[in-house]
Design a protein that fits this description.
The complex is a heterotrimer of chains A (about 325), B (about 210) and C (about 220).
Chain A: H1 14-39, H2 50-73, H3 82-85, H4 92-114, H5 116-126, H6 131-142, H7 145-168, H8 181-204, H9 212-242, H10 244-254, H11 258-281, H12 284-287, H13 290-315
Chain B: H1 2-27, H2 46-51, H3 90-94, H4 125-133, H5 138-144, H6 147-151, H7 175-200
Chain C: H1 6-28, E1 39-44, H2 53-61, E2 71-75, E3 89-93, H3 101-105, E4 111-113, E5 120-122, H4 132-136, E6 143-144, E7 151-152, H5 169-173, E8 179-183, H6 190-197, E9 213-216
Parallel strand pairs in C: 1-9
Antiparallel strand pairs in C: 1-8, 2-3, 4-5, 6-7
The chains are: A mainly alpha (about 325), B mainly alpha (about 210), C alpha+beta (about 220).
Chain lengths: ~325, ~210, ~220
Amino acid sequence: MNSPFHFPSLVWDGPIAVYLFLLGISAGATMLAVLLKRSGLAGERPEENNVLRCNAWLAPVSIILGLLLLIFHLTKPWTFWYLMFNYHHTSIMSMGVMLFQVYMLFLILWLAVIFKFWVLNLVKRFIPKLTDFAEKTIDFIAKFTGPIEIITLILSVALGAYTGFLLSALVSYPMLNNPVLPALFLASGTSSGIAALIVCTLLFTKESTHSASIAFLHKFELPVVLIEAFLLFAFFVGLYLGGGQKTVAFQTALLGGFWANVFWIGVVGIGIVLPLLLNAVAKDSLKHRKGFMLLVAVLGLVGVLCLRYFVLYAGQMTLA
Amino acid sequence: MNSVLKKMMTVAAIAGAMMLTLPAAAQTAPDNKLSYEPTLENQRNPNEYCAKCHKLDANDEQSGGDLHFGKFHGLHLSKTNPSTGKPITCVSCHGNISEDHRRGAKDVMRFDGNIFSDEPPMYSVQEQNKVCFSCHQPEKLREKLWAHDVHAMKLPCASCHTLHPEKDKMKGIAPKEQVKLCVDCHGEQQKRKAQQLKTEDPATEQKDKK
Amino acid sequence: MTACSRRSFVSGMGALILMTGTTMKSAAQSPTEKQPIRYAMLHDESACIGCTACMDACRETNQVPQGVSRLEIIRSKPYGEFPDVKYEFFRHSCQHCTNAPCVAVCPTGASYIDAATGIVDVNKDLCVGCQYCIAVCPYRVRFIHPVYKSADKCNFCRDTNLAKGKQPACVEACPTKALTFGDTNDPHSAISLKLKEKQVYRTKVELGTDPNLYHVPARPGEIRR
């Protein structure tokens, strides 16, 4: 019984695709948030900046959701903690587990510094005895805000590329065992992070579409999408020219069938061409309408989700 | 004019009536057949002739042996020959006897399934299997079991199949039993091959049995 | 100036290097040093009759549940015309790669190479079931055990027959002795001798896995893999 979602060489299925998507969002959103903060556009009171406030929810929640999906995808879910106590440097997955933990740590440190008063209020409410200690700790950490931000930035780049490295270790699938994949995932993760931040900010806060923060985010959209398009091109040309099973993988993935449609319509059409087109032809007044910006951002997110599904499923269709 | 018309009408009516009834008449009269098939009275039962000595249901010497060739409860006697449409009889597979049948002459087909016996069989593998292949097609055999392909003319069908008992040992055989059959025969074959090699040239015997 | 002058430091280091360099070298070439066992298996396709007794023996000895399999014999399409039809049989089971990708990718180390024998095995208690190993194996021989929910595959009967000093179940069950198992580090073992004497091939060697399951081709001519 073979279907696009169920074939003999498939091992990692739907939940993994969604996890890849969520991780890209978390990494991309954090990356942009740190860049925004360091640009100074958030001003003296970064805790009031709507984009940073959204990131404070989006980044941790999306990565935790992704990890939960992963944990329940294990065939022995309750043994997941073994992964945190056994590390092997040859295993990308093991190194990724370590990366998550360090990333979460630095993310929390950075967020604690920005949202110091909010954190202290929480502590005062629930564990009042620790308020002083908490304040002293956060003040201490705040002294290192600069290095923390740089490290968080680096970690978010690493996380964005990590899922690409994870899949590229699979020598059994010639389409996935590809050096362009980590770069592609980083680029698409960044673009999905930007889109997710825009969606959250416009939906859940009263941020104006003309704000400096939104403009900052928007500035990154075009170059990132263009880089992503180029990387996609390089990825597939590399497969086509690779010979042997690589060329077979190219043909199976792109030249017909369900996943080819997902690629051409979802990834290219909805995710890349349509947003570019809309941004190119829309008048300025239309471009700054909330609905329009939301639409373009959602199209981008759909495109990245399609890309994750496509790479995961079509990649597993061809064996070495 | 009127009378001519009337006459024409009556002729047409009679002709129409004939056209309608004649076909029906033709169908209901078997004696009107234009073919002739002689039917014989008191035709003998070919099985009965063999069964007089090889009692179909007895246990004595002529019917004995674990293949109990005298008894026949198997499927084949109830089937018909696909080429002629006539029922299968003892003669269909074994052929007719000769005068010296009781003296062990080589007249009827004797199927010998014991491939490991020391005596060579009376009939060659080709001669024995020819009988079976007159009805059984290789393609159908392949569908049933691929191993038919590789054993086809190498050993008698009778080495695995027993037709006289009610149920052929191979029919509905469990997969494990089927594997055991392969293992037993091929194991014996390898053992004999090894022994043969040993007696031919002791220098090639593998000392390292690891 | 100080007790440890530059000159004495340099000469001291030189002495250290000379001493350790030569002793390490001699230790590596010591003839008394025993080499670990490197188990491998040879499937002689010219002797294999495709009876699948090996599959049944493996399933029984290792308690492999129905629906999954540690060992499969894959039958080719028929070659030739009746009555001279030939089939070829290919053994599909773990290759116990010297450079096993499944061991490299396992995050907890549940998939490991037993240093004493070279056998790739799975510690089912440590396995979390992430299926990375199942995805990475180019030979597609791994599966999730329906009962233990951990990754499973042929382990050369390491905990069953080998532990009792017997040959793996498949080797013992084969009626035509098509399977040979042994230590390729021992030049006098049956498998070492056979590997030298017969023409053999391995599959997917270009992926760098260095597999240890050898095949004698079924017939001369180009190998059909």
